[in-house]
Amino acid sequence: MKRITSILIVLLTCSSSLMAQEYAKYTTKKAKDTVFAEPQKTPVVNEKAWVEPQEVKNKETKSFGDFQAIMNKAGEQTIQNNYRQALKFYTQALEVSPESESWRVYISRATSYYQLKEYKKAIKEYTLMIEDSNTPQKEVAYAYLMRANVVAETGTKKEKANACDDLKKAKELGIDDMVIKTQQVYALKCR
């Protein structure tokens, strides 16, 4: 019985694979009776043309790979509270980062500067992140919120007025009121 079942499975598999090789006739709606031949494979004229884009892609991937490896090292230092060492790695990462990933370095450096109580530098990094056109909107909103938070915590009266503007912009970009209520900037009572 097992032998017959095995033979049936083999026959079904073979017949279905043979059927998969058959092509349907192609028709169009414009000319109902028109039948087209099966599509043919396009011969590769110059194999080198197909290799070059792959080589370029590998260079980009390698650069991103280097960037990611350095960011990982920096992240390890951040976890261990070695913020100075993390900043060195983040700066190296910025040198090799693809343009589309620079914002990740800015936010990471801003966080490290904040932890080191170097608030002016943290504000500068958040500003770079906001100005970077590759920063996703959600992250721009976060940068506005965090910049406002740092200023609310450390800034002068005039700077705190600017923090309210940043908070307003963060709200416009989608930061939830519940998140804002957990931040230092909430104490400013911005209207």
From TrEMBL:
PROSITE patterns: TPR. Residues 1-20 form the signal peptide. TPR repeats lie at residues 67-100. The keyword Signal applies. It comes from the Bacteria. InterPro entries: TPR-like_helical_dom_sf, TPR_rpt. SUPFAM superfamilies: TPR-like. Keywords: Signal, TPR repeat. Transmembrane segments: none annotated. This is Tetratricopeptide repeat protein. It comes from Flavobacterium rhizophilum.
